[in-house]
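Section 4.2 – Deliverable D4.2 (structural model, holo form)

The reporting period included a commitment to supply a predicted holo structure for the target in complex with iron/sulfur cluster. Inputs used:
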Amino acid sequence: MTTTTVPTQGREVLLNVEMLRKYFPIERGFFKRVVGHVRAVDDVSFHIYRGETVGLVGETGCGKTTCGMTVLRGLPVTAGKVEFRFRDLGNVDVTRIEGDQLKHYRREAQMIFQDPYSSLNPRMTVREIVAEPLVINRIGSAREQEERVAHMMKIVGLDKRYLRRYPHAFSGGQRQRISIARALVVNPSFLVADEPTSALDVSIQAQILNLMMELQEQFGLTYLFISHNLSVVKYMAHRVGIMYLGRLAEIGEKAAIFEAPRHPYTQALMRAIPIADPDQPSGLQSAPGEIGNPANPPPGCAFHPRCDRRMEICSQVRPELVQVGAEHDVACHLYGEPTTLSDR
Ligand code: SF4
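Output (structure tokens):
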């Protein structure tokens, strides 16, 4: 059984993900016979409160981007539930909606992509790029769209004189500001930001992160912030989820995850954060070995081939999330009710 933290303190849950699964079929031969599945996201559960930022962290290939895309309905789900609290409709499982309701969700939930160089159409002017969601959703008259686009440029710190220019005329940071303006132009309440600063110079990264935090404050935005960079997540997130091979290994308040991580994988990630002190050892002591194959994950705990605390049960029984503190869940046999092999 999966035990997730019950939402507390009267805060409103904007997004509730339950046992989300996204498998990609592996096809072989002329008749494309399905011979297996890549389990990119495998029974992931978490919630996000309105106005907060949840960081999703893990190594390349852990499923964090697929999780974000699936939550946004950019990919169809294999199984599970994604409940979103609409401002006018209340809670709706968005994995089951189509037509106008899906269009409505796509206005409420937007994405900021990793690479501002490839995510902007080079043949469109900035005005056309930012206005595109309004045009597609037929929101406002041409004049209202014009005004809204000019307003969004001001909000993200760009001069409206740039509206007639094409993306190639801008720096990476300016392009990411254009991406943010495009995402916000339809007044969403929820944004998935997938490595939004990893393609930018370090000097520009802080500007974009600060802009995102200011916009969150100004518009009450809610973020799912996906990154492999723990320092960036520590700066941005209120709560942090650690993913390993398609599953959540640990999720909790930022302070708990960074100061008292419980899962051996989270502990290994924390040891891998470089320390800005020449007298300290480099700290690059991540878990040994490679992340497993999501098409054929190790049995039991997927992390067991790399875990220095593994026990007999770890290679045989898959650990489920158990609550170890307020808003703190861990999937590891070291915690929770004692489990024996006979419990399987
Ligand atoms: Fe390590 Fe076992 Fe915990 Fe997995 S379940 S992280 S192998 S101790």
